[in-house]
User: Which sequence fits this backbone?
DNA sequence: AAGCTTTGACCTATA
DNA sequence: TTATAGGTCAAAGCT
């Protein structure tokens, strides 16, 4: 197991390229656990402090993905692996047989900075500088070829611009063309009252999500949705986003020294909502829209 | 009518 | 100190 390579994981039948969305990154976020828990980082004023959260000493993303995967830190602390193709956790031994009470936990611990990368993007453009350098380090180029013709990764624009179906409600509050990427970034805030969680979605012109960055954490449980999508197309559309892997970075220096991967906790907390209901839970506004259109 | 996206302007951090 | 880039605001329009 310790020799599991990125390629192996890619080839693994257990890796479902159509697994769920980036929220696994959220669920798999790590840095918040060792510090005593949830940390929507806040300044003294109560505002989230994102900029100061650059943790140079030991960001995971400085390591090769294979190292990350092989890390006993990761393996020993959970039953899970991050799928390099999906960014999802296979959750071995957690196929719904475990505690499924996702609603039992008061909040979704998604406060770590999470970056998920769409695979296609890496073959068409190299990342440039700084963080992107790190990203490249995490991407075994040999494996990029595996995604060569994977056109099913195309993501409808509504997915990109809305919420990428992680179960939370997101409202777009800005878009910007940034220099270090050829793709525009869309800025989203969680629509839940008083929730400071944000995410930045970088998407290519053709609608492919190339990167998602989560900032801040949700201070509320994931909304429960009861709607069941009848549209297979919508379901399919939702599935096409295929983050190649998840990188987490603690963005609080206080957490640099020890990065904990307590996924077991996360499993219990979020798995149901991810695997059990996530197919049913839709982008809430999107569903409203579709519903309206159907009427 | 509410909630969303769009988009230009503005603010702030960084080199 | 200044220029630049990234992030956010907020008005307007749309669904």
Assistant:
């Amino acid at each position: 197991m310790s020799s599991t390579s990125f390629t192996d994981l890619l080839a693994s039948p257990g890796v479902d390229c159509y697994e769920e969305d980036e929220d696994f990154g959220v669920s798999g976020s790590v840095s918040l656990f060792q510090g005593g828990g949830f940390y929507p980082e806040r300044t003294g004023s109560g505002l989230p402090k994102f900029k100061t959260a650059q943790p140079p000493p030991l960001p995971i993303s400085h390591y090769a993905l294979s190292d990350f995967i092989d890390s006993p830190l990761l393996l020993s602390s959970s039953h899970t692996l991050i799928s390099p193709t999906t960014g999802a956790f296979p959750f071995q031994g957690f196929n719904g047989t475990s505690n499924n009470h996702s609603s039992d936990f008061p909040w979704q611990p998604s406060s770590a900075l999470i970056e998920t990368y769409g695979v296609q993007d890496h073959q068409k453009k190299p990342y440039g500088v700084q963080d992107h350098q790190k990203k490249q380090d995490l991407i075994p180029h040999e494996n990029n070829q595996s995604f060569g013709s994977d056109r099913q990764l195309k993501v409808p624009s509504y997915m990109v611009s809305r919420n990428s179906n992680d179960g939370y409600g997101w409202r777009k509050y800005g878009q910007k063309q940034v220099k270090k990427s050829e793709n525009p970034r869309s800025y989203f805030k969680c629509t839940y009252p008083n929730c400071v969680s944000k995410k930045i979605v970088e998407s290519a012109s053709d609608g492919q999500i190339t990167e998602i960055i989560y900032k801040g954490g949700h201070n509320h449980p994931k909304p429960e949705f009861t709607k069941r999508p009848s549209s297979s197309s919508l379901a399919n559309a939702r599935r096409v986003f295929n983050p190649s892997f998840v990188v987490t970075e603690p963005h609080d220096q206080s957490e640099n020294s020890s990065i904990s991967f307590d996924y077991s906790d996360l499993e219990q907390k979020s798995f149901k909502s991810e695997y059990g209901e996530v197919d049913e839970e839709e982008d809430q506004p999107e569903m409203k829209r579709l519903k309206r259109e159907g009427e």
The two ends of chain A are 52 Å apart (CA to CA). Residues 50-51, 173-174, 176, 178-180, 185, 187, 200, 288-289, 292-293 of chain A lie near DNA strand C (CB under 10 Å from a C1'). Chain A has a mean pLDDT of 45.
